[in-house]
């Protein structure tokens, strides 16, 4: 540090980080999903399935597995991107209570459809991930929660658990070692809020899917009041490969803070919608142009919802600056979320899109918190006015006010998930809203004109022409 006598030297700019050499990548989690019978134990075993679990259960010190996952930099793939190893290390210790693992397979975020492919086409990969995770965190009982609509996923996962049980990989003394594991598959009834971790735990407990205030976080007091780790299906499936190949292997892809690979769900106005597993950090343009084959019918890009419906929308200009990692999306005021990318082309009516979005959140609010229950309702109601060319003067400001007052004031972040898209549409597509107010001004003029002619209509009636449809005054009075 410079002292008082010495003029401070101009700060030398930090050297730009060396760009990481591009490492070739081919799908890992999705590698086998298109092969016949990929969901069976025979198929999984033939490609080395359960060998990783066999090599570690009862052999490796559980804490070493937590450290290994922490060192890999794996971040949760369910939406928040929280470091997985860190979460595991937060587990309350020495409580004397059982520890639970709750795997989140609710996959309720609109635009997201990756976990169902793992459940339907490679469920043993998830079961092996559950075995390794439970061993690492000291859990003897895992719950896998699936959204009720996933019928095939449920059947195949349940069959996989039974196959693993028959082989001694699940049950008492798994792999012949002093370790027990029960896996219970639970089906939800199709509510978005049951994807929120504490809502999911309430649902597993047999109650309504009501979220609970945090803290305490589930790692301290979760399922049945016991320490619980909640992780997404993709996160737990990735654990198998990370434990098998090591942290350095995982970190060869991605960026410094977003290492590894991720499954993205591409939908909307692209030629080839689908699921694509890629290294984190590739450009959004590469995802749209190369993987998605570009936009349909030669149309122009208007906007992208980058991480599931609750992620703030990006304009086409922002898309050019966007890479698919947690930091890039955050710097653009949005989020990577669950990896559900929806592409909107120039033909999309943004007002219609946001109205539809608000309908969803209003419908899915569990109703416990006033700002969410009432706020989502008002956002829908006012958006409905714009959608029907009936926006009132001041409605743009009203939407902004409602959204602002919903954020950070509720039990869970569903309220924020509704408010954030609205705020981003107001920020980037304000003109689209204003255009609807202008149209309304025209409608208002028509109404005024109609009211002006009313006296004439009345005078016609008064002159003995009899009751008339033109007698607007009396009609209005009866309303
Ligand atoms: C309204 C709402 C819905 C959510 N839906 C899901 C979901 O369907 N699947 C999921 O894994 N996480 C979902 N999450 C995130 C979970 O609360 C939790 O962060 C995640 O399951 C943790 O797993 P991870 O650390 O492996 O990402 C949702 C969160 C909110 C607020
Ligand atoms: S924020 Fe909304 S969904 Fe979450 S607990 Fe409150 S009312 Fe329910």
Walk me through what this model shows.
By secondary structure, the chain is an alpha/beta fold. It has helices at residues 41-46, 51-56, 62-72, 84-89, 115-121, 123-137, 151-166, 197-204, 233-245, 247-251, 284-291, 316-319, 326-331, 350-364, 370-387, 395-406, 414-428, 430-465, 472-478; strands at 100-105, 141-146, 182-187, 228-232, 261-268, 274-279, 301-305, 314-315, 340-345. The strands form 2 sheets. It has a 5-stranded mixed beta sheet. A 4-stranded parallel beta sheet has the order 3-2-1-4, with helices on both faces. Helix 6 (123-137) packs across helix 9 (233-245) and helix 15 runs antiparallel to helix 16 (395-406). The chain is globular. It starts with 40 loop residues before the first helix and ends with a helix. It binds flavin mononucleotide and iron/sulfur cluster. Flavin mononucleotide (FMN) binds at residues 76-80, 82, 104, 106-109, 192-193, 195-197, 230-232, 235, 412-414, 417. Iron/sulfur cluster binds at residues 193, 211, 365-369, 372-373, 410-412, 414-415.
